[in-house]
Every structure is written in structure tokens, then in C-alpha cells.
Write a structure and sequence with these properties.
mainly alpha, 4 helices
Length: about 120
Amino acid sequence: MFKLFTVLGALNAFLSIALGAFGAHGLKDKLNAYYMDIYHTGVQYHMMHAIGLLIVGLLAERLSSQAGLLGWAGWLMFVGIVLFSGSLYALSVTKIGVLGAITPVGGVLFLVSWLLVVISVIRA
């Protein structure tokens, strides 16, 4: 699990930086300030939770007795990135408002994943 979530975290950090650069340079003349702000929020949460995946990977190596909970935390965090940041990226580029309804689901997954991290550390 250490390798899996460390690699997922690093890949998502890479993607966050690439998508941030794309937004800053490739979309600056295509999106108004409102949609650029939405896109930026997606990038910001993407990076924060990429770092979260790295933390989960490191904790999984150190707290092997909590591998099950940390595994759930990592997967929920990853799916949260896809749903939260992914929906914000898609919303900002397509301007299809209904995509914003997906974002809170990703946010709830982020919250649950962090609670699982807390529980696993307390239990260890």
C-alpha cells in the first residue's frame, strides 16, 4: 500500500501542476474570472489531496496495523480528487452548471478520508 498511494500521490501532484500551468497559460484568454476561479479551486484541492495521498502512503508503511482503514482513506481521497477537482475542471471549461452537483460528493469523500486517517492514527 505504501508504494501504491505514494505513486498515486506523486502522479496526482504532477497532474495538478500540469493542469495548473495549462489553466494559467492555455485558458487565461478563454475563461472569464468566475470560471478561472473555479478552475483554480480544482487545482488547489487537487494538489492538497495529492499530498494527502503521499501522507496516506507514508502512514501505511509506518502503521501497518491500520492498513485497512488507511487503504479506504487513500481510495476515498483518490476518488474525491476525481469527483471534486474533475468536476470543477469540467465545469469551468464546458460551463455546464449541472457538473457542479458532483463537486460536493467529492468534498464529502475528502472529509471521510481525512477522518479515516485520524481514526487510524489514534488506533495505532
